[in-house]
## 1
Amino acid sequence: MAVVDVHRFAESITCHAWSPDLSMVALCPNNTEVHIYKSLSQDHWERLHVLQKHDQIVSGIDWSSKSNKIVTVSHDRNSYVWSLEGAEWVPTLVILRLNRAALCVQWSPKENKFAVGSGAKTVCICYYEQENNWWVSKLIRKRHESSVTSVAWHPNNVLLATTSTDGKCRVFSTFIKGVDTKDSKAGSPAETKFGEQILQLDLSYSWAFGVKWSPSGNTLAYVGHSSMIYFVDDVGPSPLAQSVAFRDLPLRDVLFISEKMVIGVGYDSNPMVFAADDTGIWSFIRYIGEKKAASSGSSYSSQFSEAFGKFYGSQSKSTTANDASDSRGGVHDNSITSIVPLGKGGSPKVMRFSTSALCRMSSPDNNHRNECYISTNLK
Amino acid sequence: MAGAAAFVEADNAEEIMARIETKSQKIESLLKHYKHVEALKTALDGSPPKTLDERCKSANWIVVHRAIMAIKDIEGMLNSLTAEYYDILMKYLYRGLSTGDEPTCEQCLMIHEKLTERAGLGCILRCLSDTTNTV
């Protein structure tokens, strides 16, 4: 049973992030500011703070769950780390040394580093230097041939996956002496050299977006602009890659809600569910919105479609706000640009997630769902 | 999969031309026997997208064009075509549309409509975004 809460914060939302206790959301309403809203009750949201420091649109926001810091990056080539002091958010400038826009940001699992992808074909890894009370940025300059659209941290806090508009997905080591401790059972020496490329995946012929690791770090998923989604199992010296082609418009972002299930969001304004069956073959299952499941003709066949049909046949969707949902049956009116999990980072299963979209009735929505494998209670 | 794409095709352009020759003979005979779908499948098989040689691409296009023009029953043809063929067929349809030649365009448009219904917009997207494997 999938239940959707729809909240309209702005005309258009560029990116968003949730606070550790999930009571507040920080979002960029397609301008230079970051608005923080607190939920007072089911439908009532109050705008608590407006963070104004950037000169251009804020392209990425991430809120760390343990240290409660917000990192924002913007097209103005800057990044700020905001800490809550008293009732105010105080910014600290991080000099990224970029000469092009910053496009995406993510805190590492241990929250002692964050990664920024940029249009300067570089990735900045920033860490906190205690002696100088300052965030330092180290650049990975090599390898990328074009803008870095998305970054994702492996649970081990060292490996970073990036996607770029050159169509390739790469995994780098971001080991920093003094910040990361060498794991005695760690892999090759390559893994302990900063900026060393571990793996390059050349599966896509067009721009690549939205890379994510599975909760265990065993599988990688990313999307290509040619309406394809790529899954790579056993990331390492001999990875197992699968390309799944699907019917409709391309995706922009993905999210692993469990080890074997992925939700993709994109230009179709309707989240798509992909799952791996017992043999490890990934395929498209269905849309989340009330839309007829696409024929499995274009994706490699799955035995799951029928089983899912039985479980979700009696799905009831309740929307709290009234949107004019278009014929696609989704809540969003325009393309969805990001999907964010609600819950503790690193947990093996995601029960709720929110999506934010562009223009015209865009809204982040919480989607509660019951995993069909295990019966758990909705939070 | 990762890293360098395996070039299964022979880099030798001559070899590919020879293969296209044999293919076109096979297709002629299939068309004589009214096996239109078979003909199209054969034409689409082994399309040399990885060669940069324009001659090979043009030669293959002529063969595919012949098979496409011979199709009368579009629905039936699409029914028997499996999903792997959708993307490559779509690419040839666009090549056909770009010729501007009236009967070709008419035929291509009709097939395009039905193919989009089946394969969805994703198929068109894959066609447009793939600049490395052109036909």
Note: The CA atoms of residues 93 and 108 of chain B lie 5 Å apart.
## 2
Amino acid sequence: MALAELGLGPLGDSLEELRWTFESGKTRSISWRKAQLQALLNFLRDNEEQILEAIHEDVGKHRVEAFRDEVGVLIKSLTHNLDCLEKWVAPKKTKLPLAFFPATAELLPEPLGLVIIFSSWNFPMSLALEPLIGAISAGNTAVIKPSEISPTCSSFLATVIPRYLDNKAIKVIEGGAAIAAQLLEEKWDKIFFTGSPRVGRIVMSAAAKHLTPVTLELGGKCPVVLDTRFSSSEMEVVVKRIAWGKWGLCNGQSCIGVDYVLVEEKSAFTLIGLLKKAINKFYGKNTKECNDYVRIINEHHFERLHKLIRDPEVANSIVHGGSVDKEKLFIEPTILLNPPLESEIMTEEIFGPFLPIITLKNIQQSAGFIKSRPKPLALYVFTKDETLKKLMISQTSSGSITFNDVAFQFLSDSLPFGGVGQSGMGRYHGKFSFDEFTHEKAVLRRTLLLDLEPRYPPWNDFKLKFIRLLYKYDYFGLLLLLLGLKR
Amino acid sequence: MDISLIHINIMPYHASSLPLVKLVNNGKVCAPRIRNLLGDREASITPKQTHPTSLRFSWRISSSFSSSATESRPIMEDEMKKMERFDSDSAASLLKELRGTFASGKTKSYEWRVQQLKNMIKMIDDNERAIMEALQQDLAKPRFESFVSEISLTKAACNHALKELKHWMKPEKAKTAITTFPSSAEIVSEPFGIVLIISAWNYPFLLSLDPVVGAIAAGNSVVLKPSEISPATSSLLAKLLEDYLDSSAVRVVEGAVAETTALLEQKWDKILYTGNGKVGRIVMAAAAKHLTPVILELGGKSPVVVDSNVNLKVSARRIAAGKWGCNNGQACIAPDYIITTKAYAPTLIDGLKNILEEFFGKDPLESKDLSRIVNSNHFSRLAKLLDEDKVSGKIVHGGQRDETRLMIAPTILLDVPEDSLIMNEEIFGPLLPIITVDKVEDSFDIIKSRSKPLAAYLFTSSKKLEKEFVENISAGGMLINDTVVHLTNPSLPFGGVGESGIGSYHGKFSFDAFSHKKAVLYRSLYGDAPVRYPPYTPGKLRILRAILDGSIIGAILALIGFGKKKLE
């Protein structure tokens, strides 16, 4: 059912306007795209303080963290796209076999049309605007539906974005599940969704009705494989990075954050000791009062997380932390040692400050452990052993693998960011964002001057021989055949 | 069912495996032919390769079951019932087996992929005649056409993949920036896992194997479901793939809607479907349940715009070859309709008529060079398009048909109304409507008002018109001054946009279509910047700002305390 029929006249009209703008061809011009990217850059620079505040309001992120993971990253992407756009939009010439002579072929990137971006609350700015940068760069018109779970950022985007960007081509539509469901009834040329696999399935089913391609950025349990054959000073850096990857990225509420750690039995206690030290160094003795420590997004998620550790067997496995404060939506950094593998904490994505440590006899077993579970969005492997690196790359499957660090793959414009299997489909960042919102049109140009007779019926043996040689690119044979010298 | 021959294979080394049974009806293997129903593991090892001592029995049964086979009748019926139903359970056990193969890592090796591709080439070379015969049986496809558009193209795809595979499989180095310094990065292509390929009847050989080549090249396990509408090719594929390829990793499931449904219920790692938009939607919705990515190769009404300044003879020939010389219009990229100017239409029609006579003679229904309509359903669908009141008077050439032989002659129609059936569904047959406009540029609006086609063709000698056409019209692929041949070029992606499909393949694009591009980042433990870790301070913000801006000098300044911007 169209929005207009649902009594949502203004929304329906908005989409009409966006389609009309796309049809007008305006968004295809490079100058328009650049102007929009520049305007988005201005939006971020002019409103940095307000944006950092809005993020703090919704998610409780410290402004340095918010700058690092949201504003700063966006500025970096915008600068990159402004630099590269002209190169990306140029048609790509492709090679042709001589048999096609005279002809030229190219791949021409063209925008898909009207796209919608459903973003998520944990990185309320970057997950809404990073895909938008791709959509604009590729020349589409776009709707952003920010998550209603981060309402301050959502309404900030809805009020301030129109002051900077072309309102006839880019709109922010706010709302909850009901609006999202109505939007999904519409025909889009691309749907870009960041969120959970459960909603991802709903989005893709809705897209199927209109044959709309989808990009699904989902999550999953991202493991850390820790091979402890490091010197003690290296181990400190390693554990710091793991701790940061868990609690320093929106306090575990991040799709690429560390979910659990695989380590050899003999090293578990060293690891726990170092993790405690890192937590202390990051957040001090009293995490509850620490401004740098992010709270849980809302009561619903607090309850969900609290339930995970109320399972008695799981509770028994807690070796550090575990205290909660519902009033403040606070959950302490919590380490668990070998919680049951069939418990919910080990079957569902945690998306919060719990860090289960699973011990193995030897670290090579981690490949089998990961393979037997749904493919994660990211895999982090800490090791100096080149054989183990090779083994992990070839034996496991995940959206990405990062060696000796956490989450840094997200920062690289030259690496595709996206999942596989349960962790999603499609990819973005840098040129990949551009491609994700682009149709590469194959264009082959021929002339009418030269025509090969044997292409056409009525068929005979001569023509069959001719084509046989042509497919082998046997030009000498062709010549002989034409001269009547070949049997 | 009229059964004349049964093959039973027994694998002596597998106590758990039951005999596999093949029902052969008048020389054709009956669909569905899922021997997996009768045993869990049998087909994973082809007897010829690994079990020299396996036994193969064949015996004949008369249709009345009167002779020596009488006693086997009760078992037969029981087994037949099972075989007629390839259900979810059979599909699930098939997948389980293929998962086992994939998990063993065998399909990932370069050697395995190359061996399979080489085997496929051998399979094609050994069976060229049988393939042509099957296509003749299913579609009355002329041998020449079968060779040009099915056999050669499939072989070319294998050869191309063989030549390039090493290069394709190499991890792609990626640049790294100051933000992740010090580090190195690459993109590794890895197979998705188990892929399902559902193919179509119009090019039943090419559209089945071309994607299989990509799936194998990328290192996946594959299940191919050929179309039941071309049964001879379907059963030939089932036989050939089993004989030539590693059947622990590559399988054919024959069947129709029920079998396809059973397959679609399973969790695949990628699905490629070739066919129509209606089924495409069903496939994608089924894929959504398991979050499986899809490639949909659909069709649409591919237009041909003809300017009045062209070389008539060559243009008419190329249009006619694309329309009637490719399976008599039953091709997803065949020209669907023509748009030309009112003034030029009569000239063009004359040109087409002449060419048609040159191609197919005075009586095209008797021509050996013209494919027939695939079946009576499609014949009556096409007849209905022609018989519509507002359309039947518009025929300017052809129109002859012979229902008993399922032949329809090349037919040209002039100025059919926009709201007629023929202008609102993909024709997929030998009918070619011509729409006329005052100025050739007016064609753009007609094309743009419809859903995006798989291909768009333009014949012109005007560079300006060509430029405008390329810029303004959206289509899967575009070809200037010719039809169809862009399909044969492995350096161009083949696929649709909008209603004409999702995703693309051919050449390297096939490899990419069946590969997950895994981002791999190597970091070192040196140069660990405290700036990223809490506790957070204004100084850290300053440094981050500089690093993310990509300014090395700014970062150094901030590090030594010369940051310009004041904070907090």
Note: DSSP finds 19 helices and 22 strands in chain B.
